[in-house]
Amino acid sequence: MSVIRNNWSREEIAEIYNSPLLELIYRAATIHRQYQDTAEVQVCTLLSIKTGGCPEDCAYCPQAARYDTGVKTQALMKTEDVIASAQKAREAGSTRFCMGAAWREVRDNRDFDRVLEMVKEVNKLGMEVCCTMGMLTEDQAKKLADAGLYAYNHNLDTSSEYYGDIITTRTYEDRLKTLENVRKAGVTVCSGGIIGLGEKHEDRIGMLHTLSTLARHPESVPINALVRVKGTPMENQPKVDIWDMVRMIATARIIMPQTMVRLSAGRTEMSLAEQALCFMAGANSIFAGEKLLTTPNPDWDEDRAMFELLGLKPRESFKQEKELVN
Ligand code: SAM
Ligand code: DTB
Ligand code: SF4
After folding, report:
1. How far is the CA of 35 from the centre of ligand 3 (A)?
2. Which one of 111, 128, 163, 199 has the largest count of C-beta atoms within 10 Å of its C-beta?
3. What's the pTM value of the predicted model, to 2 decimals?
4. Does the CB atom of residue 63 touch ligand 3 within 6 A?
5. Domains of the chain, first to last
6. Which position among 44, 58, 131, 278 bears the catalytic label?
């Protein structure tokens, strides 16, 4: 078994990313077999607990207040509705529940106290609780950890070089600082990005380089294909090529073998065969449920049928934690 490396050079990653496609898939599939149970795919469900009205200018995002996307601003959901939604997701076979808030950063206010309550309650259901709510201080991350938060999602989205073309209201360093705060609090890190933002292959390689040279690899890396939302500056981007998605997933799998690599946004535009290729290339996690945050996702029945056809089974919760401790 190859060792876990945090010292990848950009050139090494570029060489892997640019290798002949079938060789790349074969190599990723081989590493996948060495480190993971390839029959298992983690099933995560998203819920937007605070939708729209975000002050940030992320060029891809339907929830940014400044773009006319038709997303209505809503206040923080009631705790009981969030719990009901988590229960439904668990009954449908989901083991991770990720609550998203369209905030630039978490503030120490009553809404945060309510989120802490939601985290406690979902944790009691035996699900891995994840939040994605923008920037966090170390103190806020500790409070979330005490409430039972298992993971925090905070994406780098693209390379440090291209970041300023996509988002101007915060910096790459801000992003890295939050990831550091999450780590310090003992919460697992979920961080990945989006392809299809008009970035170059070098930017994708750059983002994977940053992720794979963190002191510890993120426990999960979501790879999103841009969902092109009308009203955002990215609405006219070309559709993401499936081979680019496969290349990205395979490279992530090879350089971060223990990480859950998530085939994230964009599945409604992929055929079953295309998704199967992504699993072959090392993806072992998906978002399931009719909606991502504000945009559509394949429905439960479709995913159930896909799992059956491909012989996949949902991965139990907290398994990675057990494996990494042993
Ligand atoms: N506001 C918080 C933040 O930005 O970290 C949390 C919610 S934000 C919607 C979470 C992530 O969703 C973003 O970092 C981005 O990677 C992803 N995302 C948002 N809009 C997307 C789109 N149109 N297509 C693909 N991914 C998207
Ligand atoms: C991630 O990497 N992708 C998810 C989750 N983390 C929060 C979000 C995708 C959002 C797609 C656009 C929407 O539905 O609003
Ligand atoms: Fe706000 Fe997050 Fe959307 Fe950016 S990605 S506009 S921070 S909700």
Report:
1. 33
2. 128
3. 0.97
4. yes
5. 10-325 (3.20.20.70)
6. 58
